[in-house]
Amino acid sequence: MAQTVVSINHLQKFFGKFQALKDVTFDVNPGEVFGFIGPNGAGKSTTIRVLLGILKASGGQATIFNEDVWQQAVAIHNRIAYVPGDVYLWPNLTGGEMIDFLLKLNHQKRTAKTDELIQEFELDTKKKSRSYSKGNRQKVALIAALSTDADLYIFDEPTSGLDPLMEEVFQKHVLALKHQGKSVLLSSHILSEVERMCDRIGIIRAGEIVETGTLDQMRQLTRTQVVVQTKQELAGIETLAGVHTFKADEQIANKAVFAVNTAQIGAVMAELVKREIVTLQTTPPTLEDLFIRYYNTEGTEGHEK
Questions:
Q1: Which PANTHER family does the UniProt record give (predicted)?
Q2: Which structural domains are found in the chain, ordered by start?
């Protein structure tokens, strides 16, 4: 098996007495887009700052390319591209000058691909950075990062401030990186973005990883929504294993809405067939369903993203 690109084991980080990261463990494999999701305050950005060597871990271990992220930060940075959620630019430089500067910092030069990205992201590179909106500042960093030939791309809420059309452009280029065999760590709270692009995801809650796996594996942990009407009475369906929140329609006979665990959906459907289905509508589980499952209880702690 190919060596992991990013490896994090039981990572911890304290800020004084406050523990921002309690137990973070996950890997990013070669050619994989790994989605790192959680709301503001869960610990996403703190984890990424440790990976970048900006913060020193209080416990556990983190490596990129099998190198310690703190001790070998300079060598690691030569092989990665990074876009934060809040991009700050030199106000007196134009967008084009900033892109050239960011590329030079990574020992890269402007190429035809850079110019194509500028057109796709519809960025006016002649304007001074001080006049840019948040979305345009994000575009500058994204163009520079996507122009870079790196082995690992780290995006921390990269589409913050972008309109939906520009989000589509970003997603297209991330999928292109994946097809090139590049590795991507994508931190996001936009679940549709993660669902479209990521091979695996890790959910962080209050500084701890609460679930990791492929989207198919995750969907096994969620419930399918069912709206059904039958010829015969639905009595007894609510007692079947895996059925939740059963609610009979007060206006239409033998019609009900309920949720069913993915593992039991076959058995439940068999029972519905016995009652002679008239209409049936099922809504498959989404990543959002899983996300809500972990965040519909108490709020997360902390102040970091």
A1: ABC TRANSPORTER ATP-BINDING PROTEIN, ABC TRANSPORTER ATP-BINDING PROTEIN NATA
A2: 6-79+150-218 (3.40.50.300), 223-284 (3.30.70)
